[in-house]
Design goal:
This protein is an alpha/beta fold. It has one domain: Transcription Regulator spoIIAA (2-Layer Sandwich), CATH 3.30.750.24. Helix content is 39%, strand content 29%. A five-stranded mixed beta sheet has the order 1-2-3-4-5, sandwiched between helices. Helix 1 packs parallel to helix 2. This is Anti-sigma factor antagonist.
Length: 115
């Protein structure tokens, strides 16, 4: 599968909502990162939705870190959606991912970004 098979991007409430799907791992993480950054170049705010992600290895975590850092460097607020239950949220909690950047749903993330 290509990175395009792993990402869906749409505008909603003035923000770009990036939905990632399936496994984000060493085989595709760099391509996902590149494609997301290119597609959200002018974003005023970004939601990265991980609710469709089934596996996130160290390369996937690095990809997420690079995306968050890039958006913050662009002065674009970013929120990461990871449902409270599931392996991805467990992984993010385990590594100490910034809890202030996490939301449980897209609606919560958009509310935070547009408040």
């Amino acid at each position: 599968m290509t990175a395009e098979d792993r990402t869906t991007i749409r505008s909603e409430q003035g923000c770009e909502v990036v939905r990632l799907h399936g496994e984000i791992d060493h085989g595709n993480a760099e391509l996902v990162e590149r494609d997301v950054l290119a597609a959200t170049r002018a974003a005023a705010g970004v939601v990265i939705d991980l609710s469709g992600v089934t596996f996130l290895d160290s390369a996937g975590l690095r990809c997420l870190d690079h995306l968050v850092t890039a958006f913050r460097n662009r002065q674009a607020p970013v929120v990461v959606v990871a449902p409270d239950q599931g392996v991805v949220r467990f992984t993010l909690d385990l590594i100490g991912f910034l809890p202030g950047l996490l939301a449980s749903s897209i609606d919560d993330a958009l509310a935070e970004l547009t408040a």
